[in-house]
Design a protein that fits this description.
Blueprint: H1 2-55, H2 57-60, H3 72-93, H4 99-109, H5 113-121, H6 123-127, H7 134-155
Helix pairs in contact: 1-3, 3-4, 3-5, 5-7
Length: about 170
Amino acid sequence: MATQISGLRQLGSAAWSHLALTASSVAKRSARQRKRAALAEQHRLHFRLLCKAMSDPALAAVLDTYETDVPPEKQRQFLFANALYVNALYYHRIGAMTLTELHGHVRVMSRNRIFREYWVATRHHRESMPASSDEAALGAMLDALVREMDAFLEDADDGDSWWVVGDVMPDE
């Protein structure tokens, strides 16, 4: 009889352990889903605010934190460049784009002169980030791409070989 009770206790203990592990897994998945939903909502809000600023120069003036005077049309272009960059960054953050894919995406974006001007004009924004942050590392990656693209396009007879710019990222 004692052996049967001991066996039942072991089965019960194993069942409780399995149940606790399952509950922990569900809680972690739920936390990831909440974080992802919060990030998605933040991204939607950011984009709505940028759209308002792009369509209303009075609102765009609030976002004018550049070190030089930027005309309203150029500022709208910079706001749109920011929206493109943040969109790519968001996709990377939610896991829909690997670092290698993000690198390729921003490499293409850096071909555009206006995007490169935006990136240089917002340099001081990135300088305020902690060097250990993910965004600072991504900013440094894009800084290098923009510098290389500027140098390449300055020296190139044609821009058709732009794809040679930037180190090739290893597949993840």
